[in-house]
Each structure stands twice: as C-alpha cells, then as structure tokens.
Amino acid sequence: MGANYAEIRAYGPYTLFVCIFVAFGGFLFGYDSSNIGGVLSMTNWLSIFGYKHPDGVGCAISGVYEGQTYCLSSANRSLITSLLSIGTFFGALSGAPIADRLGRRGGIMTASAVFAVGAAVQTGVETVPGLIVGRVIAGWGVGLVSMMVPMYQSEAAPPAIRGAIVSFYQLSITIGILVSQLVDLGTEKIHSTASWRIPIGLQMVFAVMLFAGCLFIPESPRFLFKRGENEKGRQALSRMRGQSVDSERVQVEMAEILANLEFEKSLGLATYADCFKSGHNGMLGRTMCGILVQMFQQLTGVNFIFYYGTQFFKQSGVGSPYLITVATGIVNVGMTIPGIYLVEKLGRRKFLIYGAVWMSVCNLIIGVVAVTKAGTTSANQVLVGFNLMFIGAFAATWGPGAWVLISELYPLKLRGKAMSLATASNWFWNWCIAFCVPYITDAQYGNLGSKIAFIWFGTSLCGAVWTYFYVPETKSHSLEQLDKMFEANLKPWQTAAWVPEDSAVLSPASTQVKDHGDVEKRA
Ligand code: BGC
Hints:
mainly alpha; 2 domains; two-stranded antiparallel sheet; binds beta-D-glucopyranose
C-alpha cells in the first residue's frame, strides 16, 4: 500500500477526487435500474397505468386503490421493465462515436442530459406509451454513462490504484440501487401521484448534479492527445496531476502517451473490424475478453435477485421478503468496499476466479436445499443466508471486476469502440436475464423455482474456468505498458509475472515520489 500511496501523491489528490466524482454516474445507473421494480407495485401508479380488475387474479401485479382493484398485465410489466435494457444496449453502442467526438467528459455530460430528459418524460406522463418513451430515453442515457465513466476513470487514474478507482464506480451503482430501494419504501404509502413521481423525478436532480459537476473537471488528457490537441492535453494533465505544465511528471507521462499513440497511428485507421483482428496486438482476444467478462458477470444471476428477489423470496415462503430485498441491497453496498481493496491486492485474475468459485458454491448449496428440504423453516434460513453470501461474493469480486477489466484491456485508438461493445454485451445479457427468467422459474412455464440456482452454479463455474484460460492480469501497469504486454503475446496465465521492459521513456508506474512532487526513476 506504501507504493500505492506514493503513486497517489505523485498523481495528485485532484485526480482521485475527479475520478471519485465521476463515479456518481454509477449512482444514476444503479438507481434507475432498480427504481422501477418498486414503482410498479405502487397502488396510485397502478390506478393510472394499469386497468380495473375484479380481484387481481391472473395479474402480474395487482393493487387496491380507493377500494378498486387494479391490474398490470405480464406483457406490460415485462415491456416496461426490459425497455430500459433495450435503451441501454443502444446507448452503450452509441457511446463509441460520442466518446471519440465529444470526449469522455463530454460523453458523461451528454449521458446526464439524455438521462434527465428521460426522467422528466417518465415523471410527467400518465400513459403507458409515454412511459415507454421515457424509459427508452433514460435507458439510452444509462447505457452511455455506463461506458463513459469507467473509460474516463481508467484514463485518468494512477495505474497502481486504477482498479480501486474503477471499483468506486461499482460502489456508486450499489449505493444507487440501495437508495432507490429506500426511497421507494419511503414514498410507497403516499396517497397520490407523489408516491411514484418523487422517486422518478429525483433522478433529474441527480443528472443535473452530474452534468454541472462535469463543467468543472478537465477532459481526459489521453482523449485530447488522441485528437491531436497536445497543448490542451498537457494542460489537462497538469491540472489533474497538480503540477506545472513543465514539470517532469507531466512531460514524462505526456511523452509516453504520445509515443504510444504515434505507434498506434502508424498501424492505420481504427474501425470496428479492427476490434476483431488477431494481429500483433491480440485485439480479437481483447475484444472478446471484454464481451465475455460482461456476459459471465450477468450470468452469475445477480440480477435475478435484484429484479425478481422479492417475488422469489415470497414464493419460497420466506417471511418479510421486502426486508430481505433491502438486506440484499445493504450487503451489495457493504461488500463492494472490501472489493475495492481486493481488486488491487489479489490482481484481476485471482479476484475473478475466487469470486466465481465462491458464487458457484453458494448456488450449489441453495439448489441442493431447494431440492431436498423445500418449504421448511431451516431451508428458508439457508436460502436467505446463502443468497446474501452470493450477493456478497458478487459485490466483492465480479461486480467491480468486470468494469475494471474492460476499462484496462484496450489500446487508446480502439478504446471507445471496444469498450462500447463490451458494455453493450453487459446490457444484452442483462436484458436476457430480465426477460427469460420468469419463463424458467414460473409454475406455468419451466417451473424451476429455486432450482434455478443450479444454472447459476454452472454458469459461475464456467466463468471461473474461462477466467483462468482467457483473462490477462492487468493490475498495476500503465495503459501504455499493457499494450506492450499484449504485444508480447503471452498466455493469460503467464501475464501476472510479466514485467515491463525498462523503456527510454519514464512511465508513471515506474516512478516514485521523492519529495513533494519530484519524481525519481526506480532502480
Ligand atoms: C451489474 C449490474 C448489477 C449491479 C449490482 C453491476 O456491476 O452490471 O447488472 O445490477 O452490478 O450491483
């Protein structure tokens, strides 16, 4: 940690502050994806967006408002819930041209503006089509923000704590989920449209805060250099590092980024096709690694608990399912904190492998108990306990891990495109789970119930094996050094031992603070 501390000092506390500030984008992501679940059950909301029903039998969700029962059909429920993921999927894909034209900071600001419009529409409308439009627009904003924030952070963060910094983004997501659960809990009893307009409308405030804050932070220096705006890049770098434009720190870092950029440029244009070429820099493997890590993150089944947990616990006969849902939110936030430490301590590979094994063991136990002891009190206790342990395992490992990895894998030239593909994969699988799970678990279809845990057991185990064979170790090196590592064409399990060659250019990861801002090359 000592070396890390020296590195933080060398990079300047302002870098840290800026990276933690933009993590707030994760809060929008978490809040919006979890908020709708609570809103759909609010009786005033149902009285406006649902339809009158004699007794609520056969409805996906029903509720009584002023003596009348209202119903929401399964079709409308899945449409309203899953539309966010469709917006996010396209939002993530459109992130590449936006990040490359408007910049990373510009992209976060665009995302907050789009998101605010989506939230405003959702707050104002009182019809299902209007709501759908609002969900898609907000989803687009969430998709954009979900790739821009880790991109900005990884381009600004000191290598030694880059994983920890990007994990703050995940921490923000989890806080967003928890806050939305609590706000829903706090407003659901209000006997007017305020019950749902407050939790939805609050999102505009969050979006404006992120937008306004971005006005005061520098653009990613790496983006400015990429655009050829070297002077602006140098100034942004000097602001970030808290050192003068002529300081050795700024000169050295700038030289390394520019040298790498020149080399990338000499290889020609950057197209989507280049993301899938298996040339000297192993781009095909890197792109697929990002796409698959996000797929395996979703296939852990974590969103089964966040999207359908309340119903799942209810059906399993567990008392106070709402409270247990809030408990999952609390464990999710709490366990992300050790994750911030572990991602640097263990390195990306061990971090992901241990987490996947831990999650699969939890799910195996849940599945076995569901088959052998279903319905008993002790079975319910085991079910709740191991579900909480599963969420804890996710929060401490794969939650942050997938975002950290995709923010480190790609060369500057292709970062926008490759990161947007990986992020779109996250949202695609997110949508698949949201859409398909009811068909797998519900009595009238697959009727798997709690036994779905066996699927998550299998997918997490596959995630562990895949990580061993395909995930490189990206910890501690600068993004430019990582490019060199990929060119060395090592097997993923050999990468942890890779040491960057001593280059002519002094790199950020190979420097130490001697005294207030001075840098010294390591022997
Ligand atoms: C995932 C989300 C999930 C959240 C839970 C994120 O990393 O991408 O799908 O809901 O973690 O904390």
